[in-house]
Structure formats: structure tokens, C-alpha cells
Amino acid sequence: MNTVLAGYGLVKKYGSTTALAGVDVDVRERDSLAIMGPSGSGKSTLLHTLAGIIRPDGGQVLLRGERIDKLGENRLSALRRKRFGFVFQFGQLLPELPAEENVALPLMLEGTPRKEAVARARRWFAPLGLDGLEGRRPGQLSGGQAQRVAIARALAVEPDVVFADEPTGALDQRTSDEVVRLLTSVTRASGAALVMVTHDADVAAHCDRVLQVRDGRISGHSQFTVA
Ligand SMILES: Nc1ncnc2c1ncn2[C@@H]1O[C@H](COP(=O)(O)OP(=O)(O)OP(=O)(O)O)[C@@H](O)[C@H]1O
Ligand SMILES: [Mg+2]
């Protein structure tokens, strides 16, 4: 399978702390990769580095074979908006906007007219089990519903890669299971790859592969299904 996103020899230092000490990762088409490891081991730093949010001090990040870690800030942020989708633990939906407009927002930022953006946004509601909730504001949604709207928003631009940092961290076990099931299946069906940080082994088990990170290095790698 083709590699969509790769990191080679990634190093990131914060003063005397080495958050990444030389990490190699590759993410293939429709692949879902869970990143696990103890608190402070470098999981979020790795995710943010692959996503072009943090610039590494050493190594390279390649998206479909092209280096992105040296791009200028404007090109890099345009690339993040177009090619990547993001789901975080909480607080990512704008409280004053209905769900469908939250999902449409990344498309509007790309210049899609509002009406068309909302029409495209609505298509993600049924696959994510959100039918009928298009007009609700985030405050009128349950935690699991809000996370599913956040997933719809990440997928709306039809990104190459969806990045999720503890997407189920604020949910109970049952809701978490439902959300990760939809996150992995709808992302895979959309053709995007998924890179997800989680501390929950049950959540990680929904992914094709798990990377274990320890002290800024890959300490283990397992594959659940044959690619
Ligand atoms: N902006 C920063 N400034 C200084 N140190 C940082 C910064 N971001 C992360 N670090 C340090 O880098 C190391 C890795 O942090 P990171 O956030 O990647 O860990 P993590 O594995 O995501 O942890 P957690 O499970 O707690 O979210 C830690 O020692 C952390 O304190
Ligand atoms: Mg983290």
C-alpha cells in the first residue's frame, strides 16, 4: 500500500527535555495507527509534528513523498486546512453555531460558498448517526454526539489524514466505544488515514496498528489486521 504520511528520524527538544528522540513512522492509505505510551512520552508531540503543527528540530515529515516540515507558515497552514482533519479531546466546536455550520466551517475557510458548504457538511450526519441533529448547537448535544460532529468536521474537507488526540478522553466507556467505532470506520470509508493518540487499549484495538512510544522513542509496534 502507498505511504501517505511519513516521519523519518524525528527529533524535538524543549530546552533540556527531549520529547522526540529519533522517531520513524509511516502511515499508509486507509491505515489507522494508534499511538500509545505513558504520560509525557511524546505522543502529542509526535502527532503534532506529523500534522505540521510543531516543527521538528531534526528529521523529515513527508506527505505523499513531499517534504512539509520546511514549508513556510502560510503554505503549511493552508496544507493543514486542506489535507488534514483534526479531532481533539474537547472544546473544538463553536458554541454559537449549529452543528451543520460547525462541520461546514473548514469548507468555508477554503472558500466554498456557505450554502454549498452546508450542503456538503450535511452529508456526514447520517454516516455518523447524527441524523436530525444538524440544527442543534453544541450545548444541546451529548458528549458523544459532539465528538461525532467534530469527526464530521474533520472529514468535511475530505482530508488525506485525520489526526485525533485522545478523541474519547472525556467520554464514558460505552460512548467511547461507539465514537471510536465510527471514527475508524467512517474515516476508512472516506479513504483517509487515521493517526490517533489514546491511553485506552480498547480504543487502540479499533486501529490497524499500534505504536508504543516511550521516552520519545518507538518502543513497540503491533499490527492487528493484515494490511
Ligand atoms: N511546549 C512545550 N514546552 C516544553 N516542554 C514541552 C512542551 N510540550 C511538551 N513538552 C514536554 O515534552 C515531553 C512530551 O510531551 P507530550 O505532550 O508529547 O507527551 P504525551 O505523551 O502527549 O503526554 P500525555 O499523555 O500526558 O498527553 C514532556 O516531557 C513534556 O513536558
Ligand atoms: Mg498528550
Description:
By secondary structure, this protein is of the alpha/beta class. It has one domain: Rossmann fold (3-Layer(aba) Sandwich). The protein is 33% helix and 28% strand. The chain contains seven helices and ten strands. It has helices at residues 43-50, 73-83, 99-109, 114-122, 143-155, 173-190, 201-204; strands at residues 3-14, 17-28, 32-36, 58-63, 66-67, 84-87, 161-165, 193-197, 209-214, 217-223. Strands 6-7-8-3-9-10 form a six-stranded mixed β-sheet, with helices on both faces. Strands 2-1-4-5 form a four-stranded antiparallel β-sheet, covered by helices on one side. α3 crosses α4 and α5 (143-155) packs parallel to α6 (173-190). The longest helix is centred in the last third of the chain and has 18 residues, at 173-190. The chain is globular and about 50 Å long. The termini are close together. 42% of the residues are buried. The site of adenosine-5'-triphosphate has 11 residues, from β2 and α1.
Summarize the structure.
The protein has 7 helices and 10 strands. The protein is α/β, with parallel strands linked by helices and 227 residues long. Strand 7, helix 6 and strand 8 (193-197) form a beta-alpha-beta unit.
